[in-house]
């Protein structure tokens, strides 16, 4: 059974930084895509940043230049480094990963069907 466990959320003032981590376990085959999504109060969930097996990253326009997604060498821990945080970044952040053994040629932030496994979420709050 695949599990994703996030950590690292918290509260920070506008302009500050936070880092999120997500540990993936239980995969028996390859994993095409991993990424971070978020849901702000009263809004739909949106893709923030995703990474494919070759470490090619895609970012939402709203976070480009401020957020960086990365994967450790073992391929089991996904990170999101968030700099220059804004109040509009306040949301519950979720780690997501594609189904065990599936292949997608390109990992996208706007196609949630590529992501079958989800973490429990970690809250990020940015105050002005």
What brief labels describe this structure?
11 strands, single chain, mainly beta, 7-stranded mixed beta sheet, about 130 residues
What does the model show?
The chain has 128 residues and is mainly β. 0% of the residues lie in helices and 47% in strands. The protein contains no helices and eleven strands. The chain has strands at 3-7, 10-13, 18-25, 33-39, 46-52, 57-59, 67-71, 77-82, 91-97, 117-118, 122-127. The strands form two sheets. Strands 2, 4, 5, 6, 9, 10 and 11 form a seven-stranded mixed sheet that branches. Strands 1-3-8-7 form a four-stranded antiparallel sheet, with no helix packed on it. A hairpin with a 6-residue loop joins strand 4 (33-39) and strand 5. It is globular and about 45 Å long. The model has no long low-confidence stretch (mean pLDDT 94).
Brief rundown of the structure:
The protein is built from no helices and eleven strands. With 128 residues, it is mostly beta strands.
Shape: globular
Q: Major sheet: size, sense and barrel closure?
A: 7 strands, mixed
| Unreliably modeled segments | none
Strands, total number: 11
- How much strand content do the residues show? over 45%
Whole-number radius of gyration?
14 Å
The total of helices stands at: 0
Helix content: under 10%
- Alpha carbon gap, first and last residue: 40 Å
The average pLDDT score comes to: 94
Order of helices and strands: EEEEEEEEEEE
Structural class computed from helices and strand pairing: mainly beta
């Amino acid at each position: 059974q695949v599990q994703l466990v996030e950590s690292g959320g918290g509260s920070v003032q506008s302009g500050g930084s936070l880092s999120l981590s997500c540990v993936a376990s239980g995969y028996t085959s390859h994993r095409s895509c991993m990424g971070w999504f978020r849901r702000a109060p009263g809004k739909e969930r949106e893709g923030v940043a995703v990474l494919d097996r070759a470490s090619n990253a895609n970012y939402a326009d709203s976070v480009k230049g401020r957020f960086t997604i990365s994967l450790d060498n073992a391929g089991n821990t996904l990170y999101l480094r968030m700099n220059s945080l804004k109040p509009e970044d306040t949301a519950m952040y979720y780690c997501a990963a594609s189904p065990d053994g599936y292949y997608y040629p390109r990992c996208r932030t706007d196609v949630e069907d590529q992501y079958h496994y989800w973490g429990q979420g970690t809250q990020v709050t940015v105050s002005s």
